[in-house]
């Protein structure tokens, strides 16, 4: 499937594209999501928010790069974006690992803390009022959550334990017709870790239907 197919099959239209200001804020933010995947995420988030009228939820806030897009899609539909993170970083972001950023270490605590950068990012984008930041471990937050969701975006820990915990914790809260979006899905192990791919396969086996593919971003709809 191509990116053109993505727009057609997701129901996204040019009206589902971010403004130049929101796109610039996204591009300036610290994070990992490429622009083509961000545009696809924005399109399906805007569609899901408008169609369901329900909150959009992200697992894996980091410094707020993808959150900017969910926040603006939520703002346009009059709903709210929720974003969950313990803000201590994933395994691959710890000291000595490939994605470690020394500027994100709290010197007093001696551990990663992405919350201050996230807050500054959202403030600069003018989107603070459209986001609820949930600071904690994803399965713990999911276990006490009680509101149906229009979209669940999984971009948290990339081990099997964490990716599976995100899937099992949050998909029960997804409304019928709601969208499940999984980032970093790599069918070929040479391209990346396999835990998100295994979550994606499990979702298909459990009745989700594929809506679109953009890079490593997979969008599925709950049947
Ligand atoms: C790949 S980053 C998210 C990237 C972000 N979506 C972006 O666009 O730049 C993954 C994030 O998930 C968080 N994380 C990992 N495991 C978690 C867990 N079990 N509960 C909450 N957050 C978790 C990490 O702290 C990290 O900030």
Automatic annotation (TrEMBL):
The processes (GO biological process) annotated in the record are:
methylation
Q: Which Pfam families match?
A: Methyltransf_24
| Keywords, in A-Z order | Methyltransferase, Transferase
- Enzyme class of the recorded protein, top EC level: transferase
- Cite the EC number: 2.1.1.-
Against InterPro entries, the record matches this protein to:
SAM-dependent_MTases_sf (IPR029063)
User: Organism's domain of life?
Assistant: Bacteria
Mind listing the GO molecular function terms for this protein? methyltransferase activity
- Name this protein carries in UniProt: Class I SAM-dependent methyltransferase
């Amino acid at each position: 499937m191509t990116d053109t197919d993505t727009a057609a099959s997701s129901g996204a239209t040019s009206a589902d594209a971010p403004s130049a200001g929101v796109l610039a804020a996204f591009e300036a933010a610290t994070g990992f999501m490429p622009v083509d995947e961000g545009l696809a995420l924005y399109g399906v988030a805007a569609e899901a928010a408008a169609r369901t009228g329900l909150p959009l939820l992200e697992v894996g806030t980091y410094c707020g790069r993808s959150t900017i897009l969910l926040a603006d899609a939520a703002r346009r539909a009059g709903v709210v974006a929720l974003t969950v993170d313990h803000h201590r970083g994933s395994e691959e972001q710890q000291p000595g690992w490939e994605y470690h950023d020394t500027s994100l270490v709290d010197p007093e605590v001696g551990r990663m803390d992405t919350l201050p950068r996230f807050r500054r990012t959202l403030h600069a984008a003018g989107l603070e009022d459209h986001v609820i930041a949930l600071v904690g471990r994803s399965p713990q937050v999911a276990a006490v959550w009680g509101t149906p969701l229009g979209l669940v975006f999984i971009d948290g820990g990339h081990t099997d334990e964490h990716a599976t915990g995100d899937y099992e914790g949050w998909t029960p809260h997804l409304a019928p017709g709601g969208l499940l979006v999984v980032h970093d899905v790599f069918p070929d192990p040479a391209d990346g870790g396999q835990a998100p791919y295994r979550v994606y396969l499990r979702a298909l086996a459990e009745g989700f239907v594929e809506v679109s593919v953009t890079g490593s971003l997979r969008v599925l709809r709950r049947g």
